[in-house]
Amino acid sequence: MIRFYRMVLLFFGVFCLSCFGATAKPQDHLGKKIFNSNRTQVQPAKYQSDFSPITRKSVSFPAKYSAGTIVIRTGERRLYHVTSSGRATAYGIGVGKSGFTWSGSNKISRKAEWPGWTPPARMRAREAKKGRILPAYMPGGPNNPLGARAMYIGSTIYRIHGTNQPWTIGQAMSSGCIRMANDDVKHLYANVSIGTRVVVLR
Fold this sequence. Notes:
The protein has 202 residues and is of the alpha/beta class. It contains four helices and eleven strands.
């Protein structure tokens, strides 16, 4: 009889262990919480468009431009932010494609973080002929063509802005705006203010 009870208790113990083990499987919702509670949470990676293929750097620059001035040389695919007499921070940029380049002098009139995008009617019509339908408005975010920051140039339609297409940095592919990688545009944005002089050279 004692042997019989021992067998029953052994069977019962094995059954209970199997039940508790089943509830702790990772695929079970409760099990996931238990298994993951002590794990380090993985932070999301930066968006691909944060990085420029052209590294920004401090360079020598003509002393005729006062500190704070932004000088854009579209032919070089570079934007220079003058930091002191004879020195500037150089950034790789994307510029206007053929027929969309321009030059002149103006000032930063507005700054925006994760700006919304309202494509001009002319651009929407032009792209529609190519079979690409642009939205009337796109809210700011990582998928927005204006990227993480935008600095508006005077009352023109042009901006210095980020991009979700980092591979276009160093190329002439825009409709006239100056593109920067998000990491670079954030850096520039933090170091300029409304009223900053912008000089665009071809």
